[in-house]
Amino acid sequence: MKLTTLMASAALAASLASGAMAQDKTKVGFVFVGPVGDGGWTYEHNEGRLALEEEFGDAVETVFVESVAEGPDSERVMTQMALNGADLIFTTSFGYMDPTINVAAKFPDVKFEHATGYKRADNVSTYSARFYEGRAIQGHIAGKMTESNIIGYIGSFPIPEVIRGINSAYIHAKKANPDVEFKIVWAYTWFDPAKEADAAKVLIEQGADVVLQHTDSTAPQAAAQEAGNVITFGQASDMAQYAPSPRVSSIIDNWAPYYIQRTKAVMDGTWESMDTWAGIGEGMVGIGEITDAVPADVKEEALALKESIADGSYHPFTGPLKKQDGSDFLAEGETADDGTLASMNFYVEGITGSIPD
Amino acid sequence: MDLSAINPILFVAGFLVAATPLIFAALGELVVEKSGVLNLGVEGMMISGAICGFAVAVETGSPLAGFAAAAIGGAVLSLLFAFLTQITLANQVASGLALTLFGLGLSALLGQSYVGVKPPRMAEVNFGPLHDIPVLGPVLFSHDIILYLGITLVAAVWVMLKYTRAGLILRAVGESHDAAHALGYKVVRIRTLAIMFGGACAGLGGAYISLIRVPQWTEGMTAGVGWIALALVVFASWKPWRLLLGAYLFGGITQLQLNLQGAGVAIPVEYLAMSPYLITILVLVVLSADKSAAPASLGRNFHASS
Fold this sequence. Notes:
A: 357 residues, Rossmann fold, 19% strand
């Protein structure tokens, strides 16, 4: 009897202690689609998480689960996080959209933040970066630098975010070089280095001398380096280890300020469901150093383009633009509104091939 | 559509490379399963081999030393599984899954300082005049030694299982460990050796991805090849040549669908993307319509007292 009482009271004390601890700390959970060492997308989200710990020190506790498959498995992971006392959960891939909404409905007191999606609820915010702004700059450099006039593009999944990137890159490549042609390969994965490398190799074998990627690992960079005479751009992260060539520039996602701001809001009790979509101007999208492999005049043009996007004087989707089927998209001088961009499911005129359903 | 954009020579050469990691991993698992052990840790052993091979190749500057280290690394990791399942008689499924998780974590830890490093390049085997034969030269005689080792190993395992005493003993252990034990064969020792062979093969397969196919180190870079290898062993009915065929089908169709997409062929991409899985399964299921079944003792633990 003595022993059980002792153990029970010890257990009670322990749970009280941990309960008290939990009240002090704000617990922030992260669900990642790839490993934190992917060198791209998930790596940058994890950098944001680390910045959060740095900022708030002992006041926050962060947890993360990496390589979580999109779909039902992610629902299990989120539920587990919520049950373990997370106050705020960031779900960092498009495919977590419905699972996030489902789990959020079960835990009204937990705040959720879903990256790159469009479904919100009272306790679900969405946030994303205007990667297409960076794609415009890549497209310009690609159009200027290609000699074969074939630009390869590795897509992940045919979702609006990826299609926006393809369109933005194409529009600006075409502007820089009217003869340019895009070859698009869908890898149907966010992270599979071997497959991403294969896709890059196939594009290079088919004549591409520029490879753009919308997948998360640095494998296409390695494949391009191996092939030689091919240029690439860092995706989601700087991928500077492949500079100065093949990687000639990059899009860098900077999530840290947002993660800090939102965690602060939870701490202050001022958190509200909202939609955030920030770009180069706000600093959520960074453009990595343009290396010397790019001719000086092209570099200058690219930087000027970046400036005009950052200060809002230029929008990457400015008319006149037509859709792939020849119908009108934007009239002369008109710019695309956020609603159109967020649900973009068509190619602009000139891109060949069709978007998978 | 522009099919002329696809270069058939580069395509075939490409899929031979793409299939090689799968061949190694699946062949190793085939031998393990023939001995009556189900090791679900292929993915973990592959990724461990990938980082061991990568690290040693970078440090020594020799890709061959890297492959040797990958084989050793995979085999050492598999010893953990052998200890759990053969000595402590732990559940094989659970131990295998644990091995995969352990391998993924361990490799991420070991690989931290190797992200973004470029590995030394593996030279092609010098076949002299054979390389200059049109078409056949670039397709068959322009690869690295490890790719040929993979094919040779398939042949060797086939000969071993079918014609040698060692193969007969291995199969006996896999079919009925009690009978084999009664005949005086050391069941645990034989199975441990098979598990180590499986680990070494998986390690080689992993290193082939990190040193040749990609080539770089990234956490979790095997991304499920180990699981495909496990499925392939079953669909190939535990027969080495079918396994080779299955791996080439899978690698070939994967490569073909990427090529077709690049060339803008008007088949819906989602069908192209699933075709490697569908066609490989279909062909191997049709082939396995004969009476080949799993080793009878597969997945059952053995203790001399039972």
